[in-house]
Write a structure and sequence with these properties.
- The chain is α/β, with parallel strands linked by helices.
- The chain has a single domain, classed as 3-Layer(aba) Sandwich (Rossmann fold).
- The chain is built from 9 helices and 6 strands, in the order E-H-E-H-E-H-H-E-H-H-E-H-E-H-H.
- It has a 6-stranded parallel sheet with strand order 3-2-1-4-5-6, with helices on both faces.
- Keywords: ATP-binding, NAD, Nucleotide-binding, Nucleotidyltransferase, Pyridine nucleotide biosynthesis, Transferase.
């Protein structure tokens, strides 16, 4: 049974921290593939971000460095709100025999009970969470505690052992705006950014 990880994010821009975590998930969970899922353009227009086609292209460039990494535009091409539950359902249909892992951060895990149809979501896939500074399972709210008590011993929840790299997307965008370069971005991605003059006037 193939094991496939689904790793969503804004990826604005994708950087070495994202790639480190993606590879760590693949290593610890023995994943055949980690599918990077850049988020679509915000339909409510309140959160500015780099256009989806650029973020998708940067993710595709970055993924070429590791054969286990792939990229999907699943969350970009859908109209309106994109719920993780629906994304997982789409991949469940594409890979009915696969063991699907949803790859998220600890901060997101602690908010899982607020997600759209979260209880059905956790029946459709397994969850793996990467550490986040200031977030740990001891902070889990009551609605999650009974699920956590079952999911951990059943192997349906994995807490990543690898530590994240101390890299901030907002700091990288600031660096790109002022210095037009960053050591935290793969050279090929940096080349794309410079070619298309992205982040030239973005401070955050």
């Amino acid at each position: 049974m193939p094991r496939i990880g689904l790793f969503g994010g804004t990826f604005d821009p994708i950087h070495n921290g994202h790639l480190h975590i993606a590879r760590s998930f693949a290593d610890e969970l023995d994943l055949e593939s980690v599918i990077l899922l850049p988020a679509g353009d915000p339909y409510h227009k309140t959160t500015p971000r780099t256009a989806a086609h650029h973020r998708l292209a940067m993710a595709e460039i970055a993924a070429q460095a590791d054969s286990r990494l792939a990229v999907s535009d699943c969350d970009i091409v859908r109209q309106g709100a994109t719920y993780t539950h629906d994304t997982v359902q789409i991949f469940r249909q594409h890979f009915p025999a696969a063991e699907l892992w949803l790859l998220i951060g600890m901060d997101s895990l602690l908010q899982l009970h607020t997600w759209h149809r979260w209880q059905n979501l956790v029946r459709q896939c397994r969850i793996a969470a990467a550490p986040r500074p200031g977030s740990n399972l001891a902070q889990a709210p009551a609605p999650l505690q009974s699920w956590l008590a079952e999911a951990l011993p059943q192997g349906r929840l994995h807490i990543l052992q690898a530590e994240p790299l101390p890299i901030s997307s907002s700091q990288i965008r600031q660096q790109l705006a002022t210095e037009h370069t960053s050591p935290h971005i793969p050279p090929e991605v940096l080349g794309y950014i410079q070619q298309h003059q992205l982040y030239c006037h973005i401070g955050t």
